[in-house]
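Q: Structure tokens for this one, please.
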Amino acid sequence: MDRRDPEQGSGDEHRPGEDHNASAADEPAVRIAVYDERGRPPRLEIVRAEPVAHLIEAAGDRVLALVKEVGGGVPGGAIREVVDNLVHAHLSGAVVTILENGNTVRVSDLGPGIPDKDRARAPGYTAAGRSERTVLRGVGAGLAIAADLIEQANGTMDIDDNLGGGTVVTLRVPPGDARPALSEGFAAQTANLSDRQLRALLLIVDLAPVGPTRIAKELAVSTSTAFRDLLALHEAGFVAADPQGHRSATEEGLRFLQSVL
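A: Here is the predicted structure, written as tokens:
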């Protein structure tokens, strides 16, 4: 894998279901830079997919996998919400940077920016237009959810202006030994999935390996809703994702189904 500066125009490409090294410079893309060692160039991957909903899905999956690979603790739900937010920038200059062994994730773009950063953190404020609502819920919940999840992990979320325009959102959590343990209520919560999440888990067992787009179609929900249901199942330990973002049930997930059916 090439180790290049993220501002350069080349690097490894991650294209779900297609040739890993395919060239498609005219397609929207999300670049992911992983800094393994201070003072050394990062590993660089370029995620491409169409339509935009698939690109957001694939980029989120890949960032989560890389954060886990390097031992990071930034909550997956927070990462998803901030990566989803790149839609508002039309993926312009989209770069995700993974630092400090995965305990810092920085998502930057060259879009229109966020003039009122305080209100961007509050539920209900949104700049989502018709096109964005085909990918996102468009109700102004994304950054508010991310901020809440980061706070639960004793971390911080900073929103800054990017150089030359656009936005930089930085998610940061302390090292593992300084983060709070999962509460006992978390296990209870995972044992009481919503009806839709339970149906999603059953579909995964029947259709595995399967991606969020198919789950969304089967459940007649938006792709964003399916993303979040699958993330809840993943964080409960009931499903696992392959490098293409397709999910399969884990042994724990199968045991859970046996206990409730």
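A few notes: The domain at 181-255 is CATH 1.10.10.10 (Arc Repressor Mutant, subunit A). The chain has two domains: 1-178, 181-255.
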